[in-house]
């Protein structure tokens, strides 16, 4: 007999033993009965709440800087620890809400939008399914347009009616669009390939030429900014020289720019307490004349210095950039001559390469006005005229100089008298063009004062004879200039034959000096 039947329960009732219990039958589940007190207990409520939280907020792995915070090892006596725990709980709730919004937003769409970057606690394992494709890891990017295919060496593709040569308009247009990517990075070409843009050869060549022109222009601007003195600014080398003047006590402070021109920039500064190397007293206010280090403005002005015997030998041996330093040196020497002759002009303080420090003509950072800007009455205008005439004669006779750029723009009115400035281009009368420069100065001065209402003002020819002492009796300006050129030619021949810079101009004695 089957042992199972023998082992039947005694309370199985009447009948065969094998019918009382089947080994393959489903066991009867006994229902667990619980009382109302168990249902209302707090422990059961906490367990149910914990199960719901685990279902709603899956376990995440958070990477924190400090030790992992749990309920067992958390020190609730620390406010910082409590704040970290509350923040972590808030971040989990925020991420759960974000996931629900993401699922609601995407729905059943094949293209899904991920809010992964907005989550507070990033899970270690990505929620994206394995079926999603990361396009960055694939060789083919469907969102990037294909580049034009390369034409084989035979020069065509296809056969018969479907043949396409390398000169096809569409093929050439796409190739030109792809070649725009080789332009300089500064030249923005856009996404022409993505838009399937087709550029003709004419348009592409025009764009290519424009890109090269812009690249060269950008290089020129960069070089000009680094190596030249721009308007109201200085290059790094000039700035370093100015810093040294302030550091060694020559200057106390540099306040700002007061004048700009084609050749130089003038700054105002307060003089320092220490004296210069040659024990010159530094005035309370100084003018710093910085000659621009570009050669553009000096290309047409080399005639003022290359034919000057004082600098002629040095001019031929220097490179072009050192001419600018020589220009500043020339103004220093000319100002020194004028100062020794007692002509009102700025006093030279110090010369450093292309920076010339002079006394300031003005007061309290306000420069003296130019003669063209100041409004003078008839008496002051007449007084100014005779002052200018006296200074021109003394400049010619005592200083042996011709201003060569004298006009109302280079004369200042300060303390009731005229001051001469900007003598960097001044030359000696024996210069090959010295008399021409003097006649031009006389014309500018005569026209200005005649317009100003000075009845005693001489015309340019009379003023030229009064300043130079020459007696040129020409009836018109053309003959007058012809005689001046003849005198200059005669003087030049004399210099070449005798090798001395001695004037051969014949005069009828010294002209009378006009005083006030």
UniProtKB/TrEMBL annotation:
SUPFAM superfamilies, per the entry: Protein kinase-like (PK-like) (SSF56112)
Signal peptide residues on this chain, from the entry's feature table: none
Superkingdom in the source lineage: Eukaryota
Residue intervals of the RIO kinase domain: 223-469
The keyword Kinase belongs to this UniProt entry's keyword annotation: yes
One Gene Ontology cellular component: cytoplasm
InterPro entries referenced in this protein's UniProt entry, alphabetically: Kinase-like_dom_sf, RIO-type_Ser/Thr_kinase, RIO_dom, RIO_kinase, RIO_kinase_CS, Ser/Thr_kinase_Rio3
Keywords: Antiviral defense, ATP-binding, Cytoplasm, Immunity, Innate immunity, Kinase, Magnesium, Metal-binding, Nucleotide-binding, Phosphoprotein, Ribosome biogenesis, Serine/threonine-protein kinase, Transferase
Keyword presence, Kinase: yes
Example of a GO biological process term: innate immune response
Entry cofactors: Mg(2+)
Region spans: Disordered: 1-20, 124-159, 495-516
Record-listed E.C. numbers: 2.7.11.1
Family label: Belongs to the protein kinase superfamily. RIO-type Ser/Thr kinase family.
Protein name: Serine/threonine-protein kinase RIO3
Organism expressing this protein natively: Penelope pileata
Taxonomic placement: Eukaryota, Metazoa, Chordata, Craniata, Vertebrata
């Amino acid at each position: 007999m089957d042992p199972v039947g023998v082992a039947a329960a005694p309370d199985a009732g009447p009948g065969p033993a094998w019918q009382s219990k089947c080994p393959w039958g489903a066991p009867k589940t006994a229902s667990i009965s619980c009382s109302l007190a168990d249902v209302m207990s707090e422990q059961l409520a906490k367990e149910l709440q914990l199960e719901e939280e685990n279902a709603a907020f899956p376990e995440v792995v958070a990477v924190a800087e400090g030790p992992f915070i749990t309920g067992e090892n958390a020190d609730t006596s620390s406010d910082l620890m409590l704040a970290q725990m509350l923040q972590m709980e808030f971040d989990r709730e925020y991420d759960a809400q974000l996931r629900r919004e993401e699922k609601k937003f995407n729905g059943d769409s094949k293209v899904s939008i991920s809010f992964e970057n907005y989550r507070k606690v990033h899970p270690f394992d990505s929620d994206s399914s394995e079926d999603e494709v990361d396009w960055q890891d694939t060789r083919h990017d469907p969102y990037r347009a294909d580049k034009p295919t390369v034409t084989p060496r035979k020069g065509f593709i296809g056969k018969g009616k479907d043949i396409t040569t390398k000169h096809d308009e569409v093929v050439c247009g796409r190739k030109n669009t792809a070649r725009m990517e080789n332009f300089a990075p500064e030249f923005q070409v856009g996404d022409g390939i993505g838009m399937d843009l087709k550029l003709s050869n004419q348009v592409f060549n025009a764009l290519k030429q424009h890109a090269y022109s812009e690249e060269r222009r950008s290089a020129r601007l960069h070089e000009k900014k680094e190596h030249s003195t721009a308007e109201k600014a200085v290059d790094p080398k000039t700035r370093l020289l100015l810093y040294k003047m302030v550091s060694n006590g020559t200057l106390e402070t540099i306040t700002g720019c007061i004048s700009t021109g084609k050749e130089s920039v003038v700054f105002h500064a307060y003089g320092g307490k220490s004296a210069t190397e040659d024990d010159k007293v530094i005035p309370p206010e100084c003018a710093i004349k910085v000659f621009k280090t570009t050669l553009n403005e000096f290309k047409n002005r080399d005639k003022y210095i290359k034919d000057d015997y004082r600098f002629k030998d040095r001019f031929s041996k220097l490179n072009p950039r050192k001419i600018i330093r020589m220009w500043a040196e020339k103004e220093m020497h000319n100002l020194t001559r004028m100062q020794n002759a007692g002509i009102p002009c700025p006093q030279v303080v110090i010369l450093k390469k292309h920076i010339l420090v002079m006394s300031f003509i003005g007061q309290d950072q306000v420069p003296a006005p130019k003669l063209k800007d100041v409004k003078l009455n008839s008496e002051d205008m007449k007084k100014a005229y005779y002052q200018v005439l006296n200074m021109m004669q003394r400049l010619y006779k005592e200083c042996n100089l011709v201003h060569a750029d004298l006009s109302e723009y280079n004369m200042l009115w300060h303390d009731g008298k005229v001051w001469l400035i900007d003598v960097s281009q001044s030359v000696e009368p024996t210069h090959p063009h010295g008399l021409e420069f003097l006649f031009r100065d006389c014309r500018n001065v005569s026209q200005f004062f005649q317009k100003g209402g000075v009845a005693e003002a001489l015309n340019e020819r009379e003023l030229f004879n009064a300043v130079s002492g020459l007696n040129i009796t020409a009836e018109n300006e053309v003959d007058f200039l012809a005689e001046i050129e003849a005198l200059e030619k005669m003087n030049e021949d004399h210099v070449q034959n005798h090798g001395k810079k001695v004037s051969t101009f014949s005069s009828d004695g010294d002209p009378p000096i006009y005083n006030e």
